[in-house]
UniProtKB/TrEMBL annotation:
This is tRNA(Ile)-lysidine synthase. Its EC number is 6.3.4.19. Its main location: cytoplasm. It is found in: Cytoplasm. Belongs to the tRNA(Ile)-lysidine synthase family. The gene is tilS. SMART domains: TilS_C (SM00977). The keyword tRNA processing applies. ATP binds at S35, G36, G37, A38, D39, S40.
Amino acid sequence: MAEEKKREGLQKKVESYLRRWNMIERGEHIVAGISGGADSVCLLFVLLSLQKTMGIRVTAVHVNHMLRGEAADADERFVEELCRQQNVPCRVFRIDVAKEAEKRKCSQEEAGREVRREAMRKVMVEEHADKIAFAHHQDDNAETVIMNLCRGSRVKGMRGILPVSGELIHPLLCVGKAEIEAALKEQGIPWRIDATNLEDAYTRNRIRNRVMKELNEINPGTAEHISRMAEKMSELWEYMEAETGTYIKECVKETDGGKLIRKAELERVPKVFREEVIRSVLCEVCAGEKNLRAVHVQDIHGLIEKQPGRSISLPYGVRALRTYEGVLIQKKEKMGEQLEKKPEIGFKMQVFDRREGEKWPDTPYTKWFDYDIIKGRLVMRTRREGDYITVTADGKRQTLKKFFINQKVPAGKRDEIPLIADGNEIVWIVGYRQNKAYQITERTVKIVQIEIYGGEKNGRDN
């Protein structure tokens, strides 16, 4: 009687958890990962019980990682026999995880996790199934939270293993490993023991065998408490994510192939959300999050406080550039593409005598200068070391670098701006300024008309 109550207790607890998270609908087809360990065997029997009450279908998937020789093969045979006894279809995959880890340039632990998920998704698609069920429990969840904490994760990482994530479900997160093993023992259901779980080769194993062991001695309910905290973090993250989206709309501007985080607007965002705004933008430009670390977000945050013109390189071929308005985050090839796409640009000149009372219209790409002031041969080029321009009628000069700084021209754009140059003296910064020393006056005899054609001419419309 006690055994029956224990079994019913775990089943009812899990069913209540399933309803709470709306994990499984009546009649759905569930693909379940079955390794042969206590957790996955328990999951299988929970799902088999739901077959009777909810009319669901179950397909088991077993992945032999080919890492433990005969022990792994014995696990495979055990799962196949268990599924045969319970009339559950079973798909077995034999994948050399050691080779996969080498090919994917990751740890065997990570490669194993990836190939398991890939195998289960493959079966889900081929079988037209609805959900993929994993056997992670409370202790696994606590270990995940601690691992993420050690890695410096933010609130998002403190959520641990999510009960539901798209088509992925975790029905056993409400029960602990000891509870699972006790229920299986009392029902006489066998399971396989993976001896490598007792070794400290992997980070998770060290946390399980050392850290959790110590924490459980302090409080046997540690895993349950950490799991509850993870649920609270999940609720907090849901709120933060929504708020972050609002702040992104306020302080991020779309650019060609990138995004500009505007400094003034970001400074009005509450401090707790600033790094989330930066991270969200960075993830979107990078189209991934895997290799992004807290240090990259902090580097961008630090760049905002630096002078315009500074830049940093980031993962996925992304560059962050400090502009006068804020920080532009953009793929490096996008910057290159923009330069390559610019059409040819040139200029033509026409020289004529000045006529008394003649007026010259103010047009963006045609300007008039005193021809006799020109000392050498006019050329069109981009900036060089030593360039300068006369900015006042009384002859005050300014270096081109200082002019660009004063005009808040983005550093990444300064090498693109066309110049009409007379040696190192700039006659015309196209789209920005004409040299005062070359202006037409009452003493002017000959006038040179310079017209720019083709290309984008500059980054401005005047």
